[in-house]
Amino acid sequence: MKIGYFVRYFPYEDSSSNEHYFGSYGAGGSPKSSYSLIREISKRNKVAVFTTSLDSKDSIETHGNLTINRFATSFRYAGASLSPRMLLGARKIEDLDVVHGHLDIPPGPLSAILCAMKTDTPFVLTYHGDWISNYGNILRRVIVSVCNMTVVEMLIRESDAIISPSARYINESKYLRRVKEKTIAIPNGLTFNECCTHLSKKECREILGLHPDRRLILFMSSLQPYKGPQILIQAMVRIRERVPDTELVIAGQGWMIQELQKMCKKLEMEHCIHFVGYIQDSEKKACMFKSADVFAFPSFSESFGNVGLEAMANGVPVVASRVGGIPDVIIDGKTGLLVPPGDSITLAETITQVLENETLRAQMGEAGMVEAAKYSWENAATSTEKVYRRLIG
Description:
single chain; 393 residues; 2 domains
């Protein structure tokens, strides 16, 4: 088979270390998941990737079965690399057995459907989550609302098959619940050598310059309202009342950072809440997970939640919102604890419960590692290939 993947970001290869990097993309979960799937699929199929460039130049790279077509970026807005050349170029693509788009920030999914419709090629859509329109400035809200009514509606209507990272999210999504008959759940996988470390918690804290003895809560995600960092900061006031030596590390970037820093100052929490920015280096990221006593995941919406699974792989108990696909990953009472979204009081009480109980943390950490070991990109790729073969006959 020859599969064409359309994604907003795709990493560059570092020839000196044979590792990949996203550069100034600062890519989150969905581009990284797309990359991991594509890398696995390309081990046994011809793959063409269509994506945006970090600069204003077109380029083509070839790595074995994998060809990467990068289209020049004209400008960037709200995390999107806007490339009219990608939209135009997609209409000229031929000789693909399957077109696979990923519902992420444009132009990727729009380019994918244009290519599939023009060439009459089977179209598969991976649905990473609803585009949420109820936050940000007026321009962002209008743009997302319009895209939901046009682009998303067209994508789910014209797709031949839709992949959701979790079964529960199919029923929670505003759009997927309407097309259950052509939607299949295929969980994401884990790349253990990238998200885990053999170093001890003590060694990781030394490397990162974190206090060796204090209780540490980790939040690692984009700083956007639906990810819930503001709820976690509110919860820290109550947590510190019960466990005074607790500190919170917030790893990630996003437009909320100044608002969150002001909140910390207003609550007099700035001395125990540390903003460390987006962590791209895989070794540093793994050390950050291993350093934590609890991973906090207070999202309002998640189709899967890769970071929760990565925390589990590092033996860290997770306290997360009971929303979307999270309960498919975090087993309540076994690998973590689930709480109502937006409830800072319950979040604080639950995190405190875990921080105060070393035995509970150890049990959940062990169970989390066992559960995380069940997820692999090889399994995800095998299930995805079955979808392709069904469509092409």
